[in-house]
Amino acid sequence: MNWPAIALSIKLAALVCAILVILGMPIAYWVAFSRWRWKFIVESVVALPLVLPPTVLGFYILVALGARSPLGRFWQAFFGHGLAFTFEALVVASVIYSLPFAVQPMASAFSLVDPQLMEASSILGAFRLRTFFRVVLPLSLTGVVTGAVLSFAHTLGEFGVVLMVGGNIPGVTRTASIAIYDEVEALNYSAANQTALALLLLSFAVLSIVYALNRRIWTVWPSKR
Amino acid sequence: MPPIEMNLTARIRKNLSASFTLDVDFSVPAGITILFGASGAGKTTVLRCLAGLLPPDEGLIAVGSDVLFDSARALDLPVPRRRIAYVSQNLALFPHLSVTQNVQYGLASFDEPSRHERALSILESFRIAHLSGRKPPQLSGGERQRVALARSLVTDPRLLLLDEPLSALDHLTSSQIIGDLRAWNATHGIPILYVTHSHREVFALGERVVVLQNGRIVAEGLPLEVLDSPSLELVAQLAGFENFFDATVLSLDKNSGIMHCRLDGANLELEVPLTRAQPGAAVRLAIRAGDIIIATQQPAGLSARNILPGTIASLVREGSLMSVHVDAGARFEVHVTPRACESLSLHTGSRVWLVIKTHSCQVVSGPAAFDPGLARS
Fold it and tell me: What are the extents of the domains in chain B?
């Protein structure tokens, strides 16, 4: 079994999950409560990774992170090496790729919070941030956990984007899903099977947690109010 | 006497749709003022504008000398800074927080000991200290109402807005809560704006009433003045009472929960529900025209205790009903269906008997007469 690849996958998924919880909540809050008329455009952009082929997404992320892009040049000047084909690039790509899996359940849960409770909080002297942490978040905790777990599981299983952006560098960007591909290419079916089984069981365990917490999974965008 | 600076002054113009514009201008002193009107009259909109949840198109809102909203100066104090308490119809208690946590929610600016002390004291004022650890889903309707009031009032608001908070409660529970609210306000003296479309509550609570119709104020003043004023038929209709009589209490029967009254200027006695009044006291009775039954023969074997002989003075068709005026020593207005009128062949001068149940007579001499322990209607 390819432990380094599995460990790398878990490390990547955990990091992406943590970033997406922090990044996803404000986006989800905005999506749930904004009345901006062009909001649907942002919704579409966030949802794009759901439908785009990973190669398309991976290609553009690679271009955006490449040595000739502003971000790539900044990274080069700051850290002394390029951003493409690094673990950091994998994290950036995975955050974008898994964004809808974090944002959608969160936004759905936020929008189900009774607006009168938020008004009551406001009348009792709380501004938005306090209302969010004391009322909205506690009442939509299952949605946030669902988003976190889904983004973890989705990152764990991604293949195309990782291959495009990370290359296949052992210990750095070779995740479990890519390791499986390699083993199959090399006709090492039993090694592929071991890693695949580990990934399967891990994903199953993670998803079981979500379903145990919340049966309204795979939510669509919250209904318009 | 609370200081005059505590008055709420509000001038609000808000266009809500092509056919509905709220346009009100009123001033409310400390104490309970009823904002009264039919559904859709704009009562809740007024409260939401005052609380800052809905921006008026134009106007001025001030409590005492503190201006909360002034369109002329583009001033609009954010909701959390207004220090206004608002209890909506569904109460909006935080379901994930205990009673104590709900009550302490608005006390974020206090340190822990004074938060605790204030919460405890208000929980005791509203007799819910024993519920402090429970969560809202585990409370009864009346308990939830008390928690919502305590949560709002613990913040020392300068204005309390109540949007039909007691409409879902039974008479006894709601009047006990009102008693506790009055007791609280006796020491705080803030204006309380109480929205209702229940005429019972107007009589029971109102020190003043502001009547709203189609987004405009059509009457304001003392409940009896407003409801009695002949220029305000609309208000009387809203109030649902057509008959008002001044009367004197003759005797009390505490065991049966009734008392006897003599109508002033008429040799007529009515049995009415007991209130906290002494014999000889002046009271006012209100009876709905639809609650009176007309009989063409002297009825017998009825549970109704007031049976008065009289003569029909006039019959007027009003839409789908007949308004019959009967002279029975005093003048009663009675509503019957045209069919009933026909089958009894009622006509001016007919000899009839009026049948009025004891509890159809509402004693409305003001808040003091309203004692739930005695007057269950």
Answer: 4-239, 244-369
Q: Which residue of B has its CA nearest to A115?
A: B92
Nearest to B84 among A121, A123, A139 (CB): A123
* pLDDT above 90: residue B355: yes
A123 touches chain B (CB under 8 A): yes
Binned at pLDDT 50, 70 and 90, residue A129 comes out as very high
Fold for the domain defined by B244-369: OB fold (Dihydrolipoamide Acetyltransferase, E2P) (2.40.50)
pLDDT, tens digit (0-9, with 9 covering 90-100), for A77-119: 888 777 778 888 889 999 999 999 999 999 999 999 999 999 9
For B4-239, which CATH superfamily applies?
Answer: P-loop containing nucleotide triphosphate hydrolases (3.40.50.300)
Mind listing the pLDDT tens digit for each residue in B129-154? 999 999 999 999 889 999 999 999 99
The pTM assigned to this predicted structure is 0.71
Q: Does B86 touch chain A (CB under 8 A)?
A: yes
**Number of domains observed in the structure of chain A:** 1
Please give the helix or strand (H or E) that residue B285 lies within, else none.
Answer: strand B282-287
- Using the CB atoms, write b or e for A64-91: b if 16+ within 10 Å: bbbeeeeebeebeeeeeeebbbbbbbbb
- Does residue B75 register a pLDDT over 60? yes
| Domain CATH number, residue A74 | 1.10.3720.10
Query: Does the residue A180 lie in any domain?
Result: yes
Are B90 and A123 inside 8 Å of each other by CB? Answer: no
Whether A127 and B78 lie within 8 Å, measured CB to CB: yes
